[in-house]
Specification:
Rossmann fold; 7-stranded parallel beta sheet; alpha/beta; globular; 3-stranded mixed beta sheet; 8 helices; 251 residues
């Protein structure tokens, strides 16, 4: 079976490609680095030829509201058009737990647009909602910088290892289309403040951190459980504290 991974050279995509190849699947790691651009359409038809499954884990290179919306809209439409030509039978897209609850964020609105393109495409699909990756805790810290201090929400989160995300996506890609949304998350729940602060301390980031009920999460104000999945979520085995032991302190 031929599987095309859009964003196949990135953090999640490269891990997913390796897992699928280990299962002896024919895999195309599609990204601008390999001559496939889902926004311009370059190389898409060639990459899709003979494919049964497409897994879209690509992320926008820009994050302003108009730029990110333009990316996911153009990429989503081009992928569906190319997939219909190729007769693709399963479209898997990686999205975010809480997307529908965080529409105050331009990024989340763009992800919702992407999801809607998939839902209305006519191609059998599975939308995988993941919680935030362990590896992005530093980015959350940076995004919370205000006036020389990092403001973090006390809302709860349930982050997941990128390795566990790749495992879950491989299983979905090799399975039947769910034609709905499935959720994946890590095994432990803690506050955004506690998780990000623990990461900062381990990496020797000494910036001052404050808990702030009004702190935004990539532009959206969080309710207490905005980032937490439902009870049916698939839970990865990797605990945050275990992963944290592998983080190298900054000099």
């Amino acid at each position: 079976m031929k599987i095309v991974v859009i964003g196949g050279t990135g953090l999640i995509g490269s891990k997913l490609v390796q897992r699928l190849r280990d299962d002896d699947e024919e895999v195309v790691a599609a990204s601008p680095l390999t001559g496939v651009n889902s926004v311009t359409g370059e190389g898409l038809d060639e990459a899709m030829a003979g494919a049964s499954v497409v897994v879209d884990v690509a992320n926008s290179p820009v994050f302003d509201d108009d730029g990110v919306l333009g990316f996911f809209r153009a990429s989503g439409r081009n992928l569906i058009e190319a997939e219909k030509k190729a007769g693709v039978r399963h479209h898997v897209v990686l999205s975010i737990v809480g997307t529908e609850r965080l529409q105050g964020s331009g990024y989340m609105r763009a992800k919702m647009e992407q999801e809607n393109i998939v839902r209305t495409s006519g191609i059998p699909f599975t939308i995988v909602h993941s919680t935030q990756f362990f590896e992005f805790m530093g980015g959350i810290a940076d995004s919370g910088m205000q006036g020389g201090r990092i403001h973090l929400s006390p809302a709860m989160m349930q982050p997941i290892s990128s390795e566990d995300v790749a495992d879950a996506l491989a299983e979905v890609a090799l399975g039947r289309p769910a034609n709905t949304t499935v959720e994946i998350a890590g095994p432990d729940t803690a506050s955004v403040f506690d998780v990000v602060t623990a990461y900062m301390r381990k990496s020797n980031d000494t910036r001052e951190v404050v808990v702030d009920n009004h702190a935004t999460y990539f532009g959206a104000v969080l309710e207490h459980m905005s980032l937490v999945p439902g009870e049916a979520a698939r839970l990865g085995p990797t605990r945050f504290r275990t992963w944290l032991e592998t983080v190298e302190p900054r000099n």
